[in-house]
Amino acid sequence: MARKIPINRYLTLGIVLLVGGGGFLGCTGIPKESEAPSTKVESPVLPSDSIPMVGQRDKEKATEEISLEGSVSVPAAASAAGTESTAGTKPKEPENTEELRTKQGKPEREPPQGPTLQTVLLFDGFVFSVKNPSVRWKVNPEGTPVRVELAKDPGFAPERIVWAKLSLEDHVQLPDLAEREEYYLRIGVFQNDTFLKDSVRVFAISFKAFSVPMLPVLQPGTTATFTMGYNGGMEREKPEHPVTLTHPFALGTYEVTNEEFALVMNQLLKGGILRWEGKNLWGPEGILVAGSEGLSFGTQFGFTEKEGLLLPLPGREKHPVVGVSWYGAWVFCYVLSLMEGLEPAVEFELSDPIQTARLKLDADGYRLPSEAEWEYAARGDKMLLYPGGTLNPNGVNFYRSGDPFEGYGSPTEAGGPTTPVGYFDGSVRGRYRTVRGAGPFGHFDLLGNVWEWCIDWFDPSYYRISSKENPLGPDKGSQRVVRGGAWNTQRQDLRLTLRGFFPPEGTSYSIGFRLARTLKEKGK
User: Fold this and answer.
1) Residue 349, CA distances (Å) to 145, 303, 354, 437 in order
2) What are the backbone dihedrals phi and psi of residue 388, each rounded to the nearest 5 degrees, phi first?
3) Which residues of the chain have pLDDT under 50?
4) For a tag site, which of 12, 61, 431, 518 has the least CB within 10 Å?
C-alpha cells in the first residue's frame, strides 16, 4: 500500500537527491537559551533547544535548478512559521562535479538515444551490510532488460566473472558475498546479447556485517486496537480515542546511537555525497543533515571529525545521536535500507518526483514510526503512562533523575546528560543500581533520554479528528511530532503520552530518533 506522504516539498527533494547521488535538505540551527542554567532547565514540551537558521540566497537565485533525469525546480528554503530566520554561510561545492557524478554511477548527461538506466545510490566503494543484498535501479522504458555481473577483476575478464543475471524487473539479489573482500559490479541495459555502451556502470563494492537491533511490535497477520491519548494530560494529549493498527511493524530496540549514525553517514562522506565542514554534516546546496553548531549544552553531540569522516567520541559510541534534523533521520533510514538491499519506504516517479512522492507502508525498508505506532509500542494495550506502570528515577533518564552521567552543579558537568542506550536494564553499574525501563515489547528508553522524531506533522487538535485506523497525522504543518521526552524534561511533565513538536529542518541537543520498519509475511 502506498500513501502520498503528508510532507512539504523539502523532504521529497531530500529523498529524490539521495537517489540521484545528490544531496539532502535540512537547515542549520542556533541555540535558544543555550547556556546551562545552574538551577533549572525548562521542560521542553515544545523542545525549545534551538531555532532553525535558514540560508538566504540572492533574490535572483531564489529558485535553484537541480538535475535528476531532467530538471527539478527547487525553491530556496524558508524558515518554519513562527521561528526566527538568519543568514547562514553556504559551504563550498565540490570543484569537479562531473567527476563526482561519474563516481556515483551517473554518465555525462546527453540527450538519450535509447533506454536509460539510473542506479539507486551506488558509488565506487559502496559497502553492503548483508551478504546477499539486492541492487536496485530505474530503467526507462520499464521492462527493458538489464544485465548485472559480479566479478573479482575490474576488467570483467570472462573467467573472472563469478555471477551474472539478466532481469526485466528493477532489482536483483546478489549471491553471497565474502566479508571484507572487494568485488566489482557491472550493470547496464542489455540488448542483442551485448551491453548498451552508454548505460554501463561499474562499481567496486564489498560487504561488512552491520545491523541495528529491532524488535517486533505487531506481527504479520495481526491487528491491534488501543486507547491513544490521556485525558489527564495537556490539551494536545486529549481526548483519549481508540486507534487500530493493521500494518505489522518492528521498532528499534534502542534509539540510534552515535556509532550507528557515523557508520551509515560515513558511507555518503566517502562517496562524496555529503561532506563534513566545521562542526556540521553538509549536503550539496548548503543543506544541513546533522551538526553541533550551537549545540554546546554538554558533550552529548558525540562526534568529532577525522580525515573528513565522522568519528564518535571515546565513551560516547553507545549514546543516542542528537543534532540530527528530521530530514537527516530520513536520510539514515533510506541509506540503511539500501545497505541491506531492502525496498525503500519512499517511492516516486522520476518524471515528477516532488508531486508523486509517497510513503510506501508495504515496503520493508527502514523509516520513522508514526505517532500512533510509537505510542502503541510504548504503552501497549494497558494504557501505561510509564515503563512498568510507575516512574522510577533509576529506570528513566530525565532532568535531575540522578544517574551517573548527570552532574551535581549542572546536568552536563559529568559529561552527560544523555545515558547510553539500554542503560536502564536492571543491572548494577558500579555503585548505581538500575531498574529495568523497557516497554511492553522490550524496547528501551522510550521515556526520557532523547526525544524521538515521528513521521507526523504536529497539530495540537489532531486527536479530535484523527483517523481511527492507521493515523499518519495531518496533511500539512510547520512542525513535526517528537515523542518520549528527554534528559531535560522535568519529572512532572514526563509520561508516555506527552506530545512534543519541533521544526523538521531544526537540530537539537535533546532530539534523536528510532527506526521503524514494516514487517512482511514470509515469502512475500
Assistant:
1) 20, 36, 9, 43
2) 75, -5
3) 6-108, 353-354
4) 431
